[in-house]
UniProtKB/TrEMBL annotation:
It holds the Pfam family Kinesin. The lineage of its organism: Eukaryota, Sar, Alveolata, Dinophyceae, Suessiales. This is Diatom spindle kinesin-1. It comes from the Eukaryota. Belongs to the TRAFAC class myosin-kinesin ATPase superfamily. Kinesin family. One of its GO terms (molecular function) is microtubule motor activity.
């Protein structure tokens, strides 16, 4: 829940303060350009002087970060490093709808250093500071945004095809968020590949199946070349996992292969979702079996895996129940894939070598079971293509994808002679292969933008939250803007004794968060309503109540008597405990007053309760009825958009 809260804050902020964050991205890019230029002047400048102008021009951290990427280029030899496991990244261009929303590009690539920079715009918890985290992810290769499918094929698939033709096993995996171009790239690569296959071999056998959910909600494989008949996934004698019973189509020409593949893709499960008009709802695995004698003496295999995209729950609000179930299975298998990468990475980090002792949960999902050898067998050539979206609203996804492919990469570093194990172990901070750098950049331009943002406090919010501050906090500010302040953390309202008129907050896309906050308010109200319920008073509360009354006579109530026991005594019993009739009357009157207050509180609580129930999963609009010294909140269900500033 907390992460969702943060996520919604950051996503909303990135849209709201796009200009400021964009400036931070521009700062980094200019700094990189300046660094490259200064490097060129190195020969004419005294030693160590080339960096100096850069640090004057830009924020020190940003300057250093750009210098590392443009001049030091620690990862520049990544593409030439011999490795049977490679990780590449492809970023799709911004889509038209994203351009219409005036979204900026939050990813930059450092081609020479084979790394991707994620510019992660954030709002500080104080609600007034915005900043950008620049994170560098070093990979084996990064495609420029305008790279064609041919380029991707040459870099990612061609080496795998060659080794498969020579009788080896190889796998190409497309991994990333939904709508980032996995299927687009996979199909583009296959198109180019078809031609080359038949230049080297006379025939190839095609198998194509998908991993999706059964009606009973279990993972299963379905043959896409045999009308989605269910097939089994078993471990063979060679120790590798195979799908048994899948139809094998023998293709003798590029046309045969294209036709068979087109038929298979027609059967693939896909649906229209919020993020993608034709979103794959299954993991598709396409196998090309090459007979012995193609280029090698033994049969070879090339497996192309187009994984379904990962998605977050706020992106699946419009999913039907069955879509949500299928999405759950997809997310589960992807989670297991990431978990295996994490465990292998941990093993590598701790031991710096491959060990059989550590348990990697490959069997928890059929997907990881099938792909096991791609991650563990050094003779198996594997390339993972991470697909990324440049949109600032997808930064969390991009970070997640890159972190996991980075883990996969470093998990296999034990077999890579050129990568020193300890370097990889520390790679997360040193920026070495398999690791990544993070730097917090607060450029000057970003700072000046912040000053502007402070003036318009009214709209500075995480989830369209509008507040008016009263009490001592108001003294902190001056002028007209003094009255208005915004906070990200709803809990602050209480601490700061915020008085709010009309709109306390309007929450969009944060229903769970809203419900949580409102539920805690309700619990407080519930506790407050019990303050007048005689039945719930303990002995101490009863004694305190009696002490607070100014009775004419004496009341002999035992110190251990509770409110419920007093209630059971009835009027006659009460009279017997009082020294005289006047005291008994006064006590009766006081108790009657308490009963009335209790009834009022209970009625208010019931109405609040009904409104809370009505909130459901919809947009929530909470408002204060009248300002008072302490925060008092009443809940109103309304159309959030209409109440928004
Ligand atoms: N490199 C690219 N250049 C141009 N358009 C692209 C590129 N990558 C993806 N797209 C476009 O983005 C959209 C989504 O692509 P695609 O369906 O391949 O995504 P996906 O990652 O397979 O999504 P899902 O996981 O939901 O199946 C498509 O309309 C596609 O044309």
């Amino acid at each position: 829940m907390a992460s969702n809260h943060k996520l919604v804050c950051a996503r909303a902020a990135r849209q709201q303060f796009g200009g400021a964050f964009q400036q931070a991205v521009r700062d980094y890019r200019w700094a990189k350009l300046a660094a490259a230029t200064l490097k060129g002047l190195d020969a004419y400048l005294p030693d160590g002087l080339s960096f100096l102008p850069l640090s004057y021009l830009y924020d020190d951290e940003v300057a250093r970060f750009a210098w590392e990427g443009a001049v030091m280029k620690e990862n520049q030899d990544a593409s030439t490093r011999p490795s049977s496991f490679r990780v590449l990244a492809r970023t799709r261009p911004l889509q038209l709808s994203e351009v219409d929303e005036k979204l900026y590009e939050s990813l930059s690539s450092e081609g020479g250093n084979h790394s991707i920079i994620v510019h992660d715009g954030r709002v500080h918890r104080d609600g007034r500071t915005i900043y950008t985290n620049h994170s560098r992810f070093c990979l084996d290769g990064v495609f420029p945004q305008d790279a064609s499918n041919l380029q991707v094929y040459q870099e990612a698939a061609q080496p795998l095809l060659r080794s498969a033709l020579q009788g080896e096993r190889s796998t190409l995996i497309f991994f990333g968020q939904t709508g980032t171009g996995k299927t687009y790239t996979a199909r583009g690569v296959l198109e180019v590949m078809t031609e080359e296959i038949f230049q080297n071999t006379q025939e190839v056998t095609l198998c194509c199946y998908e991993m999706a959910g059964t009606r009973g909600g279990r993972e299963a494989f379905f043959d896409l070349l045999a009308d989605r008949a269910q097939v089994k996934c078993l471990t063979g004698e060679d120790g590798n996992v195979h799908v048994r019973g899948a139809k094998q189509v023998l293709c003798r020409s590029a046309q045969d292969l294209e036709e068979a593949m087109a038929k298979a893709f027609e059967w693939r499960s896909s649906e229209c979702t919020e993020r993608n008009e034709a979103s794959s709802r299954s993991h598709c695995i396409l196998e090309l079996h090459f007979p012995s004698g193609s280029l090698g003496s033994v049969p070879g295999l090339l497996r192309i895996v187009d994984l379904a995209g990962s998605e977050r729950n706020f992106e699946t609000q419009m999913h039907s129940r069955s879509m949500a179930e299928r999405g759950g299975l997809i997310n589960y298998s992807l989670l297991m894939l990431k978990e295996c990468a994490r465990v292998m990475h941990k093993q590598m980090k701790q031991l710096g070598e491959k060990t059989e002792d550590l348990h990697v949960p490959f069997r928890r999902s059929r997907l990881t079971h099938l792909l096991r050898s791609s991650f563990t067998d050094p003779s198996h050539q594997t390339t993972v293509v991470a697909t990324l979206s440049p949109s600032p609203t997808d930064v969390e996804h991009s970070l997640n994808t890159l972190q996991h492919v980075g883990m996969m990469r470093s998990a296999r570093a034990w077999e890579d002679n050129t990568v020193n194990a300890t370097t990889v172990a520390e790679g997360e901070t040193s920026g070495a292969a398999g690791g990544f750098d993070v730097v917090q950049g607060r450029g000057r331009a970003l700072h000046s933008k912040l000053q502007d943002a402070r003036k318009g406090q009214l709209n500075l919010h995480a989830f369209q939250m509008k507040t008016q501050v009263g009490g001592s906090i108001i003294k902190k500010y001056e002028g007209d803007s003094a009255k208005l302040e915004t906070f990200i953390d709803a809990r602050w309202h209480r601490e700061l004794k915020v008085k709010v008129q009309e709109d306390l907050w309007v929450l969009r896309d944060a229903d769970m968060e809203a419900t949580q906050v409102l539920t805690s308010w309700r619990q407080e109200q519930w506790t407050a309503s019990k303050a007048h319920d005689l039945h719930r008073w303990d002995a101490k509360m009863l004694q305190n109540f009696l002490k607070s009354l100014e009775l004419p006579g004496e009341v002999r109530i035992p110190s251990t008597m509770t409110g419920a026991q007093l209630k059971r005594l009835g009027p006659r019993g009460l009279v017997a405990l009082c020294s005289d009739a006047a005291t008994a009357d006064a006590l009766q009157l006081a108790l009657h007053g308490e009963r009335q207050r209790d009834a009022l509180a209970a009625a208010a609580h019931r109405s609040r309760n009904a409104r809370m129930t009505a909130l459901g999963n919809h947009k929530v609009h909470a408002a204060v009825e009248e300002p008072s010294d302490f925060v008092d909140v009443d809940f109103v269900v309304g159309e959030a958009a209409s109440a928004a500033p």
